[in-house]
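Hi P.,

Sorry for the delay on this. The queue was packed all week, but I finally got your sequence through. Input first:
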Amino acid sequence: MDNSRRKFLKRLGIITGSTMATLALEPWKAFAENGKTLSGMKIDEGAQAPEGTMTYRVQHGTGEKISLLGLGMMRMPRDNQELVNELVDYAIAHGINYFDTAPMYGGGRNEGITGTALSRHPREKYYVATKMSNYDERTWSFEESKKIYEKSFRELRVDYIDYYLLHGIGQGGMDALDGRFLDNGFLDFLVEERKAGRIRHLGFSYHGDVRAFDWLVDHNDDYHWDFAQIQMNFLDWRHASLNRSGWKQDADAEYLYDKLEKNGIQVVVMEPLRGGSLTRMPKEYAKQLEELRPDAPLAEWAFRWVGTFPNILTTLSGMNQMDHLVQNLKTHSPLDPCTEAENELLEKIADGMAGIPTIPCTTCAYCMPCPYGVDIPGNFSFYNEAVNNHLLPLPETTAADYAERHEHFIREYRQAIPTEQQASQCIDCEACLLKCPQQIRIPNQMSRIVSLLRKR
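Then the structure:
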């Protein structure tokens, strides 16, 4: 180990050799000097969250204090451990103690990356959440699912998992719920693991067929769910059930949240920014928010809206850039809940945005890789940006500005998306359909984009 690395570990308070690693958790100065990160990025002192001001929520039953802002690890780089370490260090130093991962994230490497970063800290300083991602029918047997479960402990370098989830129930409907967790006895096994202390809190994440969600909540007396993870933001609150793809979802976030609250099940929120789309809303809506709070980023509005609800345990954000982490920490340190008037304005904005024909992609990349090379999230992001900037939908072909706008769309698209990743490469194989948490009819949407690219 070189001398600079030793100095870094010493600043972190990590004792090498056979002794247990410890960390003196002093904000920021524990791992940075002169206001700079290890990667050299300058941090504005005024932009940082004040020490000891993170907002916490109490876990029912145990009294554990969970940071209202949690770090979602899914979008972390898979090839830059030092950057991941740096983000985790800064998060812990500023009060974040909930970290979410899954076996399938990052091409199967995310649990290991997460475990490496977290294991450098005392175990009592963080709560780690991971999932049973046995989507493939080849892993539905008890034996194969158990291998995934046991591997999580090794990758995360822990002897107990704080929050364990059935991953993505609702995808594949009731048949998948039966095959993945009920018929093979694996849910019963997880309940026993919780009794044994290897799982501290048991829950599930939901996307898709609401019958699976309802079944699990309706059987709460049998399983005693500690928490559930749902997609919740001010747009999906009442507008998730009608996807702009024309594909019917079964439940808005309002229904999901209310049912969980009535059953005493705390909520972990995913996609509070709806894949970042709520920070890229049309200018006319952004202007209304800026007039009320001129210095508030759009992301702050979304987080404040979610945090206003009392049954929220934590809100996950995939902060893989230091400036995003710094900004979101400041929002939650402490959180300033939305006023009634602000909630009414956000509701009106959501009603307006619901009528805009965007594709409800959150860029989670569950659909990737495409076997034919299509950059599915990239295509959808470009399309949505064109809609939000009022380039799309195109006017009638007889309109005076039709040709100019059409040519502009084609030119910009071809510059933004490499040829081998464009929508035209889609052959409608449907390999992506069961993977999409938003139930987007992906091949249909690719056909729409291809149609827009045709010369008329």
